[in-house]
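Help needed: design a sequence for this.
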C-alpha cells in the first residue's frame, strides 16, 4: 500500500464518523421547534416525521381570501392541504407564550363554495391539534366558523391541525416557537 493510501484510510474513517447521526432530543415530546431563519417551515406538506410540513407563505393571500384587505394583501399565511382554508398569521411567528403583549392572532378564511353548508353540522371551526411526535390531541374552537381568533397551544413544536367547519374539512401544520 502506497503512503498516500495509508493517509486516505484514516481520513475516510474520520469523515464517516462525522456523518453519523446522534440521538435526538432527550425529551422526545419536546423536539426542536421553530421556523427556519427565513420564517418558513422546513419541509413540504406530508414529508414525514421530524419537521413541519405546511410552508408559511409571505406573499399575497389567495384572491378568494382578500376580502377586507387593501392592496396586494401580503402577509404571512398557511394554506390548508386541500386548499379550502387559509390561516392569515397576524401573530407570526406563533409562540407558546408572548411576553411583549402581542397575541397568536390567526384569521381563518374558508374558500367560498357554491353549495350550502350541511345543516346538520356545526358552523364553528373545530380545531384538533396534535403535536408532532405525540398522540395527545388538543382542541380549540372558533365560534361562528372561520374568522378571527387567538389560538394558543401549550408547547413549542410542529402541530398538525385537523380543521372542521360547516361539513367541510382540511388540515395544515403550524409551528409554535418557544417564547
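Sure. Designed sequence:
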Amino acid at each position: 500500500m502506497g503512503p498516500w493510501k495509508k493517509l486516505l484510510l484514516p481520513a475516510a474513517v474520520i469523515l464517516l464518523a462525522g456523518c453519523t447521526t446522534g440521538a435526538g432530543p432527550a425529551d422526545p415530546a419536546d423536539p426542536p421547534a421553530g421556523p427556519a431563519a427565513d420564517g418558513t417551515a422546513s419541509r413540504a406538506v406530508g414529508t414525514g416525521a421530524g419537521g413541519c410540513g405546511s410552508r408559511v407563505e409571505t406573499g399575497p393571500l389567495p384572491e378568494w381570501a382578500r376580502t377586507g384587505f387593501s392592496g396586494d394583501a401580503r402577509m404571512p399565511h398557511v394554506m390548508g392541504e386541500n386548499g379550502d382554508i387559509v390561516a392569515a398569521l397576524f401573530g407570526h411567528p406563533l409562540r407558546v407564550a408572548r411576553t411583549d403583549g402581542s397575541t397568536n392572532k390567526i384569521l381563518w378564511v374558508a374558500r367560498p363554495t357554491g353549495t350550502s353548508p350541511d345543516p346538520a353540522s356545526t358552523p364553528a371551526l373545530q380545531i384538533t391539534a396534535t403535536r408532532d411526535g405525540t398522540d395527545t390531541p388538543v382542541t380549540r374552537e372558533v365560534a361562528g366558523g372561520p374568522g378571527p381568533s387567538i389560538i394558543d397551544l401549550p408547547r413549542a413544536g410542529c402541530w398538525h391541525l385537523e380543521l372542521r367547519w360547516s361539513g367541510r374539512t382540511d388540515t395544515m401544520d403550524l409551528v409554535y416557537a418557544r417564547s
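Residues 4-50 have pLDDT under 50 and may be disordered.
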